[in-house]
User: Fold these one by one.
Assistant:
Number 1:
Amino acid sequence: VSGNSITALLALDWGTTSARAYRVASDGGVLDERSAALGIQHVRDGAFVQALASLLGDWRELTVPRLACGMIGSRQGWIEAPYCPCPVALANLARTIVQTPGGELHIVGGISCRDDADVPDVIRGEETQIVGLAAMADGSLLVIQPGTHSKWTVVVPDRNGAPEIVAFSTYMTGEMFAVLREHSILGRMMTERSTLDTAAFLRGARRGSALSAPGELLHAIFGARTLPLFDELDPSSTADYLSGMLIGAEVAAGRQWAARHRAALDGAWLAGTSVLCERYRIVLELCGMSARVVPSDVAARGLWQLALQAGLVTRSL
Amino acid sequence: VSGNSITALLALDWGTTSARAYRVASDGGVLDERSAALGIQHVRDGAFVQALASLLGDWRELTVPRLACGMIGSRQGWIEAPYCPCPVALANLARTIVQTPGGELHIVGGISCRDDADVPDVIRGEETQIVGLAAMADGSLLVIQPGTHSKWTVVVPDRNGAPEIVAFSTYMTGEMFAVLREHSILGRMMTERSTLDTAAFLRGARRGSALSAPGELLHAIFGARTLPLFDELDPSSTADYLSGMLIGAEVAAGRQWAARHRAALDGAWLAGTSVLCERYRIVLELCGMSARVVPSDVAARGLWQLALQAGLVTRSL
């Protein structure tokens, strides 16, 4: 919470499914926030001006800079903000900022990299959370951002101590879970439950993290059908078993990936919903890693840093 | 084709999506076949008697035994025929045969096994194809049956030379491809094409078979989005790239699995649609394995063998 209450920046985390706006004070403190189900997939016919007005409400009257991150800057969003190739110094990310044609909004670009097979990978929005995290945590960072597309990122200080994103990797874990649950035979035997079945989740995570070959995942997920079929898993626990298996497989792969990029594997930062962060924390712990969860307003903190770098705002304490 | 034309058996391959009936002569030769979109998922309110009549047409008049294999014998089918636990001598499979309450049909049971993680696995229908194959091919067999759920099976002669299914493994490759194409972000950039893009398919297969960690598949599939996004893959080739990757991952895992079960890895038998068998043949060849495709009526041949074993029919040449 800020020591003063004058708004210096409107910071927007505008993604595919939802949009969130923060009122940020001139010392970088978050004063207030608003959200709406106005993710870019819900905005029809390019009506972003109207969506922005609806999200901001009376904050529209505030004559302060507005800086957004996330899919609003993608080809499907308002205006495309470029991808900055990896490795990238966090201090240089502000150079990707573009402005909408009507001047309504500044938008941060994303980051691209080439993976170990020379295939492109992208993040958009997560980089801003990492800027916010790096402003509050020193040294090398391994950051995991679970979600529809989970992102693993390694941040390392350069020789001058300035943090640099050296590599990142996307895992389609959340979307994979969703399509298997909603559209495959695995979902047909699943019934709802309100709380996590930790035992079933761990059973899946142990299996997923111990698989011997990549394609073995295509076999192991079938257990989410056969185990309930043979009365060896309750139908209400099957979703948690599958979730554990997929996250376990991701964490095992992510650990190998992070080691190749010389990240320390003793612990990781988690940024995401509390439900997902808790699931990842359990699996990381299973693999001997500690986990710390970043503050939920870390994107606003990152946007503040980027606005400072871009000269959109100046700090006053 | 048979040397005589007297029907001795009606053989039915009755699966989830479709049903096929064969008229088999007393020397085991297939005389004729009929099919209908009357897979068990299309049969409403347990109306299997009517579905059978519709599939058989005027073959209903034939007073010969009727033997079926496939999901018609599952819990969701007409009557449940039991799973026989692995390893199982092919000569003992006939013991799983049950009869419908009204005597309309005999149905072959499936096979169950425990995988390397002690999780149950099942096949139902594929075992009958393998019986048919074993009647025409000697020695140890590695059989791959691609489809919605691809099955790998190792058949080894016991000390008396009688073939035995020692292990099998299910890979949800076909269903995974379908749900990703139809319901995930990966499908959104895919456009149709009428023929296989072999280069894109091979590119995916090389990637899928070379992955280093199980969960790496959750990362690699994201290439089916980023490659077209960066104009490095044509949207009309993306489906073939993803198909190649998933089949490549399956084949790499299947080879490791088969080696653990002491199968020879120089070649494999393929049983499935010609389109799928060709894709698997390409990937097997990429891995240094030859492939032979079983005759399309191999299920009818297997049902004939099982009918002989069960004493439902007697051979006359």
Note: The first strand of chain A starts at residue 7 and ends at 14.
Number 2:
Amino acid sequence: MMIKLMALVEYDGTNYHGWQLQKGVPTVQAALELALERIVGVPTRVHGAGRTDAGVHAKGQVIHFSAPWFRSMEELQRACNALLPPDIAVRDLKAAPEGFHARHSARSKTYVYHVLNRPLRSPVQRLYTLHVTSRLELGPMQEAAAHLKGTHDFAAFGAPTDGTTSTVREVLDAVWESSDQEGIVSFSIHATGFLRSMVRSLVGTLLLVGTGKIDPAGFLAILRSCDRSRSGPTALPQGLFLMSVVYPAGDAREESGPTKRRSADV
Amino acid sequence: MMIKLMALVEYDGTNYHGWQLQKGVPTVQAALELALERIVGVPTRVHGAGRTDAGVHAKGQVIHFSAPWFRSMEELQRACNALLPPDIAVRDLKAAPEGFHARHSARSKTYVYHVLNRPLRSPVQRLYTLHVTSRLELGPMQEAAAHLKGTHDFAAFGAPTDGTTSTVREVLDAVWESSDQEGIVSFSIHATGFLRSMVRSLVGTLLLVGTGKIDPAGFLAILRSCDRSRSGPTALPQGLFLMSVVYPAGDAREESGPTKRRSADV
């Protein structure tokens, strides 16, 4: 019997060329599909909520897939975690609602970007943070980030995906936080959809605010310009984590409407 | 002019066969000596405070070395960090006091061991924690750890090093703490000296207390037995960090006395 399943996936993206299948290179999707094929005995397509770039990590990627399975969810999850490499793990595996699609049903997603702000690089943080040696001023970065909230045309910070042309997205929250870990500051952004490379482009531009090269008003001017050439450099991938994906309450039925086609490609 | 220098070293031990030079395999000491030789132009012996095992990390290893150097400390530190691989970094480089020896002058050291206690393994924590799936009870582990404080014969938890035969060491503090990071509990131990594998042997045995296989009184009985065969398994290296080394106040002159020959080999 084919059943439709969903799960949360955590991965360390360091050794992968991103989420999505690509010929000849290791990807997270390929690793999951290979493990599932070995378990259920037939090729199994896995769909993810966010198509993370090479080197980007996830603590809360959501996947769905359909597979023939006759035993318990616990057994399937255990089998996945036994066959997957140590840098990918599956949790909360369960039956998916009828019509559920990990990407199309997503209402919103949260990404977090970690920056190590100190003069010296850190060997044990190097895989999960961007190292910035110049002193960052959190106040102006926070002020600039606040301009992101609401529905805006984010054309200055990325290109559309999914075959659409709109670059309008709705940001529900965008905030910088200091960590209790020495020197780490993190940018958290919750939005109904993201453009390609949007979080990393925002971080790269907000870091220019943090070092005083742009002021918060200048950041707002870049946002309003809708001019991709005015934003800062795209920040390196290793600081970025897909943290969580929100689906409609109660179940996760596919919804039409403005959020449907705005899913994350970061 | 030859000058004697000291520095703090942070490293990710994942890809090294421990601190100490070994023919044909990468070690942290070898990486530091190679970088220094390339900078100063002559072979340079580096001495470390703790000879960490393969896979063990350090946030506060202390080193000393003598080298011909005519420019600033900042330039030498920058050169080291430019030539060292990303998983090793040098900080706080400065002139060492006359007679200073990173290992022999050390008064005490602190090691921390991180355990991820949850059913599911974690891809992004896997290099820096030991994964324990059985639920750990922190109360009994804490009670057992308290028995370690003071001067005891720790023969049940390791073999002596440095050519001595004594297995008596003084533990200044030993405590378990929950982290704010979900599921992580950490064992911190501050002692004037350590036996070979002592921290990992203590952790392996304390984990048996945490899962109820031994009670705190049983742990005390193992300590008192001085019988290496009664302690638990030696915990895997990846959870262990050398955090800090304490030297005599004011300077770091070599001291005779009981602490001199009790330096860490973990």
Note: The first strand of chain B starts at residue 2 and ends at 11.
Number 3:
Amino acid sequence: MNLKTIEYTNGTLRIIDQTLLPNRLKLITIDSLNKSIEAIKMLRVRGAPAIGIVAAYTILLESKKLFLKQKLNNRSFNQICDKLRASRPTAVNLAWAVKKLSDCYYENSNLINHMLIKNLEKCAISIHQNDEQSCSAIGHYGAQLFKNYKNIITHCNAGILATGGNGTALSVIYETAKQNQDIHVYVDETRPLGQGARLTYYELNNNNIACTLLTDNSAGSLFTAGKIDAVIVGADRIAANGDTANKIGTFPLAVLAYAHDIPFYVAAPASSFDLSINSGKLIPIEMRPEKEVLSFWGISKNAKYNVYNPAFDITDSKYITAIITEYGILEKPFNKNITKLIHS
Amino acid sequence: MNLKTIEYTNGTLRIIDQTLLPNRLKLITIDSLNKSIEAIKMLRVRGAPAIGIVAAYTILLESKKLFLKQKLNNRSFNQICDKLRASRPTAVNLAWAVKKLSDCYYENSNLINHMLIKNLEKCAISIHQNDEQSCSAIGHYGAQLFKNYKNIITHCNAGILATGGNGTALSVIYETAKQNQDIHVYVDETRPLGQGARLTYYELNNNNIACTLLTDNSAGSLFTAGKIDAVIVGADRIAANGDTANKIGTFPLAVLAYAHDIPFYVAAPASSFDLSINSGKLIPIEMRPEKEVLSFWGISKNAKYNVYNPAFDITDSKYITAIITEYGILEKPFNKNITKLIHS
């Protein structure tokens, strides 16, 4: 599939508007900070690595704009960074990418000139390219683990549409499929926004991977029936002890896998790790609007409903068999091995 | 609330069309076998006890019609029973109610006359009235267990709208609320058809029970946060060992409760027990149409999707703390105690 989730060509940033998939594949141009923040908040672009890449390009483009108006300075630069960082709180790749661009800016800020902009561009492009390479490496390492699995379940979308490359969890699927034609993926629809139903099924189907869609709450009966060999998901943030924030619904899947003695894998690049925190309890969880849940049921806008709508949950590392990174497979004890692998 | 899910007055059977809730409260008249089967299949009436009651009245009305045309005989009577029994396979109350009416017919079939019709009517009304009483008794016994619980989670709808009375699981809530004003219910939306979002929230809200709606996959994070004191659900069929078939998504909730050491209760009348089978593995699971899942995502009708859409799952009795029946609280070992309680 020639999907390009994020395109940066001749100074223009374009993304697939993922809210329109699978019915319509439309590229939109992101040419302002506000458009970028709107696209991130509305999930036109989503997936931890993809959000980081878009944030990096946005800082570049916005800095360039200010520079041409002779308005780029530490204060205006920091404002861009702060606004982007605040747009979604859970995925750490966003803060990570903002920091990369910020470090690049301050290393070069003694001279605010074309060279600074050039360096910011280099930095943003390298974040994008490195993510593409990380995805491939994750696929490579993961496929070694997955070669004997036939039926795999995944939640949300950790694929091409979530990254600058072939995905994290789905990169493992794509690489495994090259050796194992029998692979079949159960796709959780992923309420409330349907990243599984709308994005993952679309991606897998377009890449000729056999798949079956199900409501999130149907996974249990597949485990009981012995129809699941392994679970694989992406991550929005991984604490130093391996606790993992990912799309709401990931944790119940991990508990089901554990209860049925089925391996549960997380696939994520180093940019998704937050070694500054020791436990998933410290990861901020974004609460999303009530209407995301209510609109599906045709419930009148005037009806008063209390709704609990967290965007993510935390999977305790106890439930995670291993974490697949671009540096290799992370096994337990995560605390010790994460520092060794990611910092080596 | 003055909701009457099923009304039988002056020979006319009317039900609330539950597919229109919560936006519209409309009664429809069920005056033929086909209308009844359509209403059951389309979930205009749903909930194991309610389906049983509607089936009983349908047999009465259809028999009366045939009798007046002088076409009532064993063959035509059996046809009605067979068609109703086949309309939904999982909830055993349907087959149970059909058998009750059938037994009544064959006890009286030596004389096919007004008396036979009168007796069928008595039998149907008594099924309805007994269910109402069972609901009250379940509420009474359950409230003794629930008096110290504040935050309770439920799945699907096992309330007024699922029974001939105040419900099974929700009857426990209503009774508990009389003593414990602090009670608060987390309501799983219950994909794909939203019985939680559309029916349970509506019922509880109209009865002034504080509640919060959530996507099914959000329950995990509530358990982690220590926000759930107990789980209560209804049942579509309970095997002799306590394994329970209930709405898809019940089993994952049970596994979550077990992992967090939170009690998990099933509330059901004796008519939901199937002592002819020893294990949940033998309960037939109804598979529902793909479109129930797909239609929510605005996916084009021409798109080819493989969809796994079971209406129910089986919760292994290992995960069930106790079963609340109209005869009292069933505790483990279920195998032994079920026979004692239900047959006593």
Note: Chain A is about 40% helix and 15% strand.
Number 4:
Amino acid sequence: MQRPGILTLTTDFGNDGPYVAAMKGVVLGLAPGTQIVDVSHTIAPQNILEGAFVLGEIVDAYPEGTVHLVVVDPGVGTDRRLIAASVAEQWFVLPDNGLITGVARTRKPAGVWEITNPSIRRATVSATFHGRDILAPAAAHLLRGGDPAALGSVRTRFVTLRNFNPMEDDQGFVGEVIFRDAFGNLITNIAADALAAHPFDDWRVEVAGERIDGIGRAYGDYPTGSLIALIGSTGWLEVAAVNGDAASQLSAGSGTTVWVRKKNGRTTA
Amino acid sequence: MQRPGILTLTTDFGNDGPYVAAMKGVVLGLAPGTQIVDVSHTIAPQNILEGAFVLGEIVDAYPEGTVHLVVVDPGVGTDRRLIAASVAEQWFVLPDNGLITGVARTRKPAGVWEITNPSIRRATVSATFHGRDILAPAAAHLLRGGDPAALGSVRTRFVTLRNFNPMEDDQGFVGEVIFRDAFGNLITNIAADALAAHPFDDWRVEVAGERIDGIGRAYGDYPTGSLIALIGSTGWLEVAAVNGDAASQLSAGSGTTVWVRKKNGRTTA
Amino acid sequence: MQRPGILTLTTDFGNDGPYVAAMKGVVLGLAPGTQIVDVSHTIAPQNILEGAFVLGEIVDAYPEGTVHLVVVDPGVGTDRRLIAASVAEQWFVLPDNGLITGVARTRKPAGVWEITNPSIRRATVSATFHGRDILAPAAAHLLRGGDPAALGSVRTRFVTLRNFNPMEDDQGFVGEVIFRDAFGNLITNIAADALAAHPFDDWRVEVAGERIDGIGRAYGDYPTGSLIALIGSTGWLEVAAVNGDAASQLSAGSGTTVWVRKKNGRTTA
């Protein structure tokens, strides 16, 4: 017998109401035994960028065959598409509004299907809750090993967001904070790879009026309260306060501009 | 071998402490392999109406045999009853304080049993945590396919709340907001069925000093920021701000009065 | 076939970001089918005492063989040790920074192993996320029935916190609040056992300028709003406001001093 599949859920539905549990009930009814993992239900309401970031961070930790159901869907009830994408031997079931960006940024999708088959959805489809009525049944179809081609026709294009790419010039990079975590760490859209051309000590990070000299390694290397820049656990440059809250300390958050400049270059001041 | 059952949990215990995890441990020890789904643990403390609403919203999404364990229990340690109710081929294990109202409003219970059997509970019963010590073992008993009659004697009456029924007169309905969701949508106690006697365009919704003309279909049909009334995903009239937060915009929430009036009728002003 | 094991997770990662889900993915990849239970991810950031308290409260509710993975780790990236401890036929996988205190306070560990084996960790170990890269693989190793000795060498000592022990004198105890739960109940570090030498009516509890006469039994015995002291569901003295929020009412929380004095003795005023 096939082992039941893994489904992860990422939404902006909040942890308080019935919406998430309704989606889970639909999946468990159609694909009994599915192991469900909540990634986050507190993506900022209708913030596609934040959803795309969180989703992109977890992919490498999941085994092949995992199905990721993601609902941050400001366009529900309009003609935006719903898609199922096969990337890195995993499935992504979501609105085609850019949510796939964090995953597809460095991984080429093996295939994308539009979800249109009226027989793979709940009998009554609400105008406001396609997560429960269309996406959950589509995820269950894939969890049961169903053919993706049964969902609808192949798509060759899908929507991506530009925010994952910082600007680059001869002095370095200008990017932005794309996520503030529970510790107040500010995670930027500047990847470690982009900074590897120079020793980490040769960079200077500027954010919210503060300058940080060099890019460090671990929180434990610095005194409590120090503002530091380091490469986080998934390869992004982040700004942190050791045993403190950098976001509060700097009054910074998603969208705050971050400069990473070569030390021998111009400053922004 | 029988597939392990599904247990949902709805409480006001919060997501922060050990209480929910203790209940889960008890269930997993007694009914190994049970699939546990958290519905919400942030029901407002001791708010039975909110618990009853959330529970009522998820029933249709769950398969037969699901056991729903619900603990919003201001009367713990007094002589309020604990019951197990069979409704819609699912089980509801909860204090008899009105929590069943949202489920039983439109579905007749097939049977209700009081939970009194001292051998189906933990060896030591705390005076303040019957969720862990009595209800969790009762739920585990049902998850293992146990006879409900072993829990205690049959009850023919159970407590229901009046708040799910708006007042009706010849001009329409006067109801109230019963839930504010994570998007700030205001869900009322007025059901779509009640409004079906007239075309949706012929109604006017009045709430917190604002008038909304007609009842719409989907968020996507209106410009961002518009205040709209529509039928939500589970059949209740709700008031929403398109891509915004109606609750904040109107300073409204649970208990706010909502008028739904025929357009050719009297207004409240 | 062996039934898949149970893993509980307690962290200060918050419910919002990708960190918890990444740890779960690693475990599910290495120990497929593991049943994962979230205890809390909102331990106050880097608050080891709070993590130790919550963990200690749930142990008795879990079956033998359960693996508890706990990450509150202000020392990540320094030379603090990571350990796996066998206590009460369950496993505890955590940094050796005192998190084990609530569990080991009244239960002697059967064995403690340091986690050092480089082959039981992810291929790339981040300097800032040992929870995902070292502790999750170690937990998966134990969930699959692996030999703890494969993790590293035996330890005979481990770190404990002093905060679980109140001061005692001939008039009673001086302790502190160690947890504020979602209801605003103030749970102290004074255990019921310590108070059993005298009838509960003979004690007076003093906290935040208020005196409470006697130690009661259940919330339901007192009028709404009453400030009461009682023995909570896991055996600690707690201060509660009946159907209210004692923490707000008293402006008290973790660290607030609590006096428990014999009634015929001196008062603090």
Note: The radius of gyration of chain C is 20 Å.
